[in-house]
Every structure is written in structure tokens, then in C-alpha cells.
## 1
Amino acid sequence: EVQLVESGGVVVQPGGSLRLSCAASGFTFDDYAMHWVRQAPGKGLEWVSLISWDGGSTYYADSVKGRFTISRDNSKNSLYLQMNSLRAEDTALYYCAKDMGLRGSYGDAFDIWGQGTMVTVSS
Amino acid sequence: SYELTQPPSVSVSPGQTASITCSGDKLGDKYACWYQQKPGQSPVLVIYQDSKRPSGIPERFSGSNSGNTATLTISGTQAMDEADYYCQAWDEGVVFGGGTKLTVL
């Protein structure tokens, strides 16, 4: 079964740090780019970051650039998001999502989503 | 930065056709896709590359994209189609529309 399982979401104080993880199974992980997408309570989807199949290219939304770092370990079929200098507006459900495009192609659509992990930034 | 604009809400009667639009500058020059999200659930891809349906998505879901507007059309809308729908495109990064709440009444 194709599956993405996120973990690491907790309550953290403003200015704090957190690392989210996403474990992939059921597909050839290192063939696909991966994304993080977040959704604040009662709000819409917001794309956060993208990493290419080999980790060689990364992209970030302006709202997280310089504070968040995306990475992957293809030997462990895992995706990560290091979140630093957290703010109240980072409070959201964080999803990892698989890109449909094979290897060098990405950004067109996400065909697999995890269930999400909740990050709450509050004092 | 690039923006995609969707109507906040659309209403449709059961069995009728629902159309949800997504507007962006020269959107027709890019690929658009659509996600369905029901309360408490993760998004599900229903249309990709403007008009293609992933495996398992009913034929009543279709899409088009031309000029500045992409459109998701649901023919013979059913109560189970009531959900939030998001369009998405790529422009130096992934961009989502604000979402449209589809009500079937």
C-alpha cells in the first residue's frame, strides 16, 4: 500500500525549533520529488517546500524561507522539515505529499498525501 | 508573486452540473490540477494536467484550462461531492488557490 506517515508535531513556544518527519512506503521513494504543505485551522492549503528526487534542488515559500529546511534520506525512505524561529502563524497541520512527476519533473500535482501532523506555536 | 483566485463558495442541486473556476495570469500556459478535501480528511487529487483523471476518480469529474481560467466541472453532482476544492499550479514554486466550498443542496 502506498503510504505517507508524518510525525513530530507538538506544541512549541515562539522562537523554538522542531523537526518533522515523513515515512514513505509502497513506492520507489527516490524516484519522486516530495513536498510539505500546511493548513492552518479553518484555512486553505499553503505550500511550504519542495525537494527534488535526489535532494539536489530545494524550493521554499517566501513565508518560511530562511527559517525552514527540507531534506530527505533516500536510504531510509524519509522526508524531513527542520523548522526554526517558529512563529504563531506557523501553527498548522503539516502534510507531506508525493509529486506525480518522475525524477526531474515536479510541481504539476501531488498524488499521495499523508494524514498530517499538527504543529502548534504558542506560549 | 503569482496568485490563483477561486470563488469562496458554489452551490448546486443534486444531479446538476457544478463548475468551479480558478483564475490566474496566463494560467492556460501552465498545468492546473484540482484537489478535493472533505472535513477532517487529507486532500485527494481529482484532476491533473488540466483535464486528466487519476485512477479511481469518477468520470463525472472533468477539467479544462484556457486563457486565464481553469475550470473544474462535476456533472451529475452527488451529495458525496460536497467538499472544499483547491486548484494548484506551478510558478517558481507551487501555488494553491484559496479554495471553494461546494454545497450540494
## 2
Amino acid sequence: EVQLVESGGGLVQPGGSLRLSCAASGFTFSSYWMHWVRQAPGKGLVWVSRINSDGSSTSYADSAKGRFTISRDNAKNTLYLQMNSLRAEDTAVYYCARDYGGNEWAFDIWGQGTMVTVSS
Amino acid sequence: QSVLTQPPSVSAAPGQKVTISCSGSSSNIGNNYVSWYQHLPGTAPKLLIYDNNKRPSGIPDRFSGSKSGTSATLGITGLQTGDEADYYCGTWDSSLSVYVFGTGTKVTVL
């Protein structure tokens, strides 16, 4: 079964750090671009970051630039999101998603999400 | 604030049809492919439509997508109670150099 499972969320104080993980199974992880998408409470989906299949290229939403780092370990079939200098507005459910690999970006497999709460 | 605008909600009786619009601009919908996602809160979002009008395997043909100019539309026919969810359009924005989602539409089955 094709599956993505996020972990690492939790409660963190403003200014703190957190590393999210996304374990992939059921497909050749190293062949796919991967993304992080988040949803703040009561709000819509927002794209956060993406990484190409071998990890050599990344991109970020403005809200994540300079604070978040996306990475991957293809040997471990795992995607990561290192989040530093966290702010209250980073409070959200964070989803990892697989890029379907077609004409343009689209996300065909999603995880269940992991909740990040930034609060003192 | 999203650059893709959707109606906040649509509703219809079981068996009926609903359409959800997604309005953008030439920097996003006008020159890029559109995808549609179904999201029940607390669950993993699901890809319904990609490349404007293609359905992934396993998505019933009750779901359809179309695009004209700077707008896209998701259609759902034969509405079922299980279709109650939030629906989002999404596409690449060439000016912002980011993937953008629509504001989201809640579908209610009356």
C-alpha cells in the first residue's frame, strides 16, 4: 500500500525548533519530488516547500524561507522539515505529499498530517 | 490570502449536481494546469483531478474538471452524503513562483 506517515509534531514555544518526518512506503520514494503543505486551524491549504527526487533542489513559500529546511534521506525513505524560529502563525497541521510527476505540480498521495502548535 | 477564489460553500440534494468555480489570473490558471482536491478535516486530502480534467485511478467519473481562460470548474454529479467535504483547486503561479491553493469550498449535501 502506498503510504505517507508524518510524525514529529507537538507543542513548541515561540522561537523554538521542531523537525517533522514523513515516512514513505509502497512506492519508489527516490523517484518522486515531495512537498510539505500546511493548514492552520480554520484556514485553507497552503503549500510550504518542495524537494526534488535526489534532494539537490528545494524551494519554499515566502513564509518558510530562511526558517524552514526541507530535506530527504532516500536510503531511509523519509522526508524531513526542519522548522526553526517558530512563530504562532506557524501553528497548523503539516502534511507531506507526493508529487505525481506529471506535467506540473499536483499532489497525488498525502499523509494524515501532524499537528504543530506554537504557543507559550 | 489566496490568489485563487472559490465560493465558500455550495449545496444540493442527494443525486443532484454541484459545480465549484475557481477564479484566478493569467499568472496561474490562465497558463498552468489545475488540480482539485477533496479534504475531510482530520484526514489526508485526496487528489480528484489533475491536468485540468484528468482523474487519477479510483476516482469515479462523477467528478469532472474543466478550464476556460483564467477560471476552472469542478463538477460533482450524483451527489452523495460521502461527498460532504472541503474542496480546493490548486495550480502553479508563475509570478509568485509558488504553488497556490484556492480559498476552499465546503460542499453540503442537503
